[in-house]
Design brief:
Elements lengths: L1 E4 L4 H4 L6 E5 L9 H12 L1 H6 E5 L4 H7 L2 E4 L8 H9 L3 E4 L4 H4 L6 E4 L4 H13 L1 H18 L2 H11 L5 H7 L1
């Protein structure tokens, strides 16, 4: 089982989930989340987590990594509108995210993925374990997520909606593009 994630406290959740976690991306210098630093250090030194967590850093092959993954998780403490969740859904991955703005707007609970409370490693572990153990559920949520992402977040649709909202394109012309 391969789970793709952004850097976060997700490694703690893997103590009870037999899966490999790929942490993709770099920490921003402006990110001052000390608990995240502690979780990353623990993942690098804990004997169990060392075997399960891979820090992949910045990558230019994220689409290939997502295609190779089975689950996507973004257990952030705060986000705007995370594009990575949309990309995971476009790839057909079920999503386990935290119940925060942005992610809560993208993930439909029990249909395209699931949302867990912020900083709740036990809930994150339970959600991941549920998907690890249920390939049919993974496939179903992944397919529904892809449908949702294509229906709502395709670039041409988003641009057309923005043009209408800004008054730069009449609604009747934009409707033809939606």
């Amino acid at each position: 089982m391969r789970i793709t994630a952004s850097p976060s406290p997700a490694p703690r959740a893997l103590r009870s989930v037999d899966a490999r976690l790929w942490l993709v991306g770099e920490r921003l210098e402006s990110d001052h989340a000390d608990p995240v630093d502690a979780a990353m250090r623990a993942a690098e030194t804990d004997p169990v987590l060392k075997q399960r967590v891979r820090f992949l850093g910045y990558r230019g092959d994220v689409p290939a990594l997502m295609r190779a993954a089975d689950i996507y998780t973004l257990p952030s403490h705060r986000e705007g509108m995370p594009r990575s969740v949309i990309e995971a859904m476009m790839t057909g991955l079920p999503v386990v995210g935290t119940d925060i703005r942005g992610t809560r707007e993208e993930v439909v609970e029990g249909e395209t993925g699931t949302l867990v409370p912020v900083k709740d490693a036990a809930a994150l572990a339970a959600a991941l374990l549920r998907l690890v153990r249920d390939p049919k559920l993974r496939a179903g949520w992944g397919a529904k997520g892809r449908e949702r992402a294509l229906a709502l977040y395709r670039e041409d649709l988003v641009i057309a909606r923005q043009l209408v909202m800004l008054g730069l394109q009449p609604l009747r012309v934009a409707a033809a593009n939606l």
